[in-house]
Model the fold of this input.
Amino acid sequence: MVSRIVAVLNGPNLNLLGMREPEIYGRETLADVEADCRRLGAELGLAIEFRQSNREYEIIDWIHEARGRAAGIVINPAAFTHTSVAIRDALGAFEGPIIEVHISNVHKREEFRHHSYVSGVASGVIVGCGTEGYGLALRRVATLIGARSG
Ligand code: CA2
Done:
């Protein structure tokens, strides 16, 4: 049977979600986002593996782990979006769909947030839709991997 696993990966400082800067990132915590993803994942027949790390190498290891195992990746690389060639290279070696998510509209913010190393290897990018963006990304992965086969 083809895998329905979707790795939802979160980068540095996203563990602080809902605890600071609610005007930028909203009031939902990362635990709330995880619960929302699990609820929607169950509806869409996806097995969600939800993770967050402040360490670049750990995110790279999780992307490698997803190869040949997961059907898709949803990733908010947070600040690593704007700095990490290594995360881009790891994602470039993943064979399934990759949706990049940013909670805030990075294009309305500082210039250094306008460039993403990840977008060039992503199937799609969701920006500025708040934490709802994770659900939109999961729906897109479900579309791209196709309907449940049984
Ligand atoms: O908008 C996004 O989702 C970002 O990926 C969030 C990153 C930021 O560096 C990117 O430019 C855009 C920051 C994540 C840190 O999240 C915090 C949440 C609450 C309080 C402090 C940080």
Notes: The mean pLDDT is 96. The pocket of CA2 is lined by residues 13-14, 16-17, 20-21, 25, 76, 78-79, 81, 102-104, 106, 113 (CB under 6 Å). The two ends are 9 Å apart (CA to CA). Strands lie at 5-10, 47-52, 72-76, 98-102, 124-127.
